Amino acid sequence: MKRKSFILLLIVSVFLLTSCTKNYYENKGDKYFDAQDYENAEKYYLKALEKEADSHTYIKLADLHRNNHQYDKEGNTILKGMMELDDPIDLNIRFSQYQTLVGDADKAQISLLHLLYQKFDEELFKEIIKIYLENRHITTIDYYYNEFKDQIKDLETKILAYKAVGPDENLKEELEKELLDSNDIKAYKALIERAYDYHEYEKVEELLPHLESMDGELEFYKIYSQLLAMKDLFIMNKQIGHFINMDYKDLVVIYKNIDNPSHIYLTLMDGKTGEIVIDKIMEDFYPDFIDLDVYETKDELDQLAMTSYYGASASSGKKFSIYEFSKDDFKEIEPNFESDLEIKLLEEFKIQVESKNLNKRYIIEIPKAHRLAYIEDGQYNEEGIPNADNGPRTYGDGYSLRYRGDYKDTISVITGFGGTYSYSAERLGYIDELYNEIDGSFKCTAFKIKDIEGMVRESEFIEGVQVITLSEPEQEKEETETEKIHYPERLIEDDYKLRIGDKTIFVDNNIDYITKLLGSGEVELIEHINEDVSMYEYKIDGLTILYMEKDGPTGKQQFNDTILVDKPGIKTIRGLEVGIDEERLEKLYGLKNLFYEDENESIYLYQEDGYTIHMDLYVVVDKKDKRVIRFNYSTNL
C-alpha cells in the first residue's frame, strides 16, 4: 500500500513539475533579474522561451539586456520575438521604445503608424503620442488624433493627446472640455501644466483649488502655487523631480531677474514643506537657453540634467552637466565620458569608426564627388592615401538625455565626422554614442552611424567583430537593349511626374491646376493648423493629395504635402504603377533601400538627386503576392 502511494505521489509530482516548467523557469529568471544577476536571469528566461514563446517573456529578456546596457542584444531579442509570434502588438511597442532610445524616433513613429492604419489599437496610438512628447521635432499628432478620435475610449490617451496637441484650437478646446468633465486628478494636472506653459495664469488660478481638495495632490498644488508666485520673473526652464525627497516631488527653477538679467539663478523648492530652500546665483554661467531633465537612477535621489546652448545656432556650443542637491546647496558634476571610439582615415578614400570594447566597426566610403575637397584640404593625396598628420575632422554636435524604460539614465552624445575645413558646416555623417554610468564613470555602451544618404549598407561578422560597410552604390550593369536601365537610382525631375490617362501632372503642381486638369474630385478640410494655414485632402480615382493652404501677403499659397496612389492606372515616367511585380520594381528603381518591413509588407524608400523638390518616394510591396499595392510621395521638409 505504501509503495502504491509513493508511486502515485511520484507521478503527481512529475506531472506538476512538467506542467509548470515554463512558469518555473520564468519565476527563477525574475528572482535573478531583481537581484541584478543578469547572467543567470538570461539563462532562465531562455529556458522559459524554449518551453513556450510569448511576448511577455521576450520583453523581460529585452529589459534585461537594456538594464545591462547591451543595446544591440536588446533590439535583436525583440526582433526575434516579433518574427516568431503572430501579431505581437506589445513587442511592436517595445521595439519602438528601443528605436527611440537608440535615436530612431522617426522610424519608430512611422512603423507604429503603419500598423495603426492596418488595424486600430489604442495602445499603439498611446505609444505614438509618447514618442512625440519625447521628440517634438517629429510629425505632429493633430491629424492622426482627429482621424482616430471616435475609436479612442481611454482617458489616459486623451490626456496624452492634450499634452501633445499642436495649433488646432478646435481639437484643443474639445479635449480640454473632456478633461474638465472627467473630474480626474491626472486630467486636471495636465490642464494646469499646459495652461502654465502657455502663460494662461488665470486659468491656473481657477484650476488649482480643485487639486487642493484631492487626496495626495497637495505637493502638485504647492509646486504650481510657487510657480504662480514667480510668474513675473523670466523663467528659462523648470523641472520637477525627487531632488531632496524620496517621497515628495521637488521643484527646480532656473530664472533671470528682469531688473538684473546678467545673473542666472537656481531655485529649489522642498516638495515636503513647500518652502524655498535654495535661491542662488549660478556663477560663471551665461547660456542663451537651456534644457532641463531628470537624471534618474533606481532607489536613489534624482539629479538634474542640464544641457546649455551658447550662440544663435541650436546645434552649436552645447554643454552637458549634472547637478546634485543637498538641503541647502547644489553641486555641478561634469560627466567624464569614457570611450575607446577611434576615427581614422583609411586608404582608398575611406573613414573607419571603431570601438574594440563594443566589437563594432564602420567603414564609410567618401563619395567620389567629394574626394577632390578632401585632397585640397590635405587629408588625402590623389592616389587616395591618407595624410597621417591631417584629419579626420570631428565636430561636437550635442547632448541629450534618452528615455529608458521606467527611468532615464542614458546620455546621447552626437559627433559629426568627415568633411573639410573649407566646408566646416558639412559632415560626412554623424556618430550617436550612448553613455551609462558604470562603476562611477560614464562609459560608452553603444554607438551607431546615423544614416548617410545614398549609401549601400552591408554587415558581416569577422572574428567576432561586427563590420558595417557604407559605400556608394555601383552602377547597374546593362542587361539587354529591352531591359536597359535608363534612369539613375536617385530620383530625377521626371520621376516626379504622374501620367493619368492622356494627362500628366507634376507632384509639385498647384492643387488648383490639378483640379482643373483632372476634375474637382472630393475635397475635405482635414485640419485648421492656425488662423492662416489649413490642411485639405483631395481624392479622385485612386489619387489622394494632402495639401496645405496658406494666406500670405501676396494672397493664397498652396503646397502639396503627400501624394498617394493606391489603384492601377496612374504611372510614373519610369513605369511604376500599382500592380506591377517586385521584379519589375527592381529593374525600374532597385530594391536596395528597404525602409521598413513586417510579415505582410515591405516599404522601399527613394530620394531625389539633389535638394530641389524635397519629396521622398515610398513604394509598398505586398510580401505574399510580391506586387506593388500603393506608393506615395511625401515632403521631407
From TrEMBL:
Signal sequence, renumbered to the chain: 1-24
Family annotation (Gene3D superfamilies): Tetratricopeptide repeat domain
InterPro entries with a match to the protein in the record: TPR-like_helical_dom_sf, TPR_rpt
Ranges for the TPR repeats: 22-55
Assigned keywords, A-Z: Signal, TPR repeat
Record-given protein name: Lipoprotein
Naturally occurring in which organism (per UniProt): [Clostridium] ultunense Esp
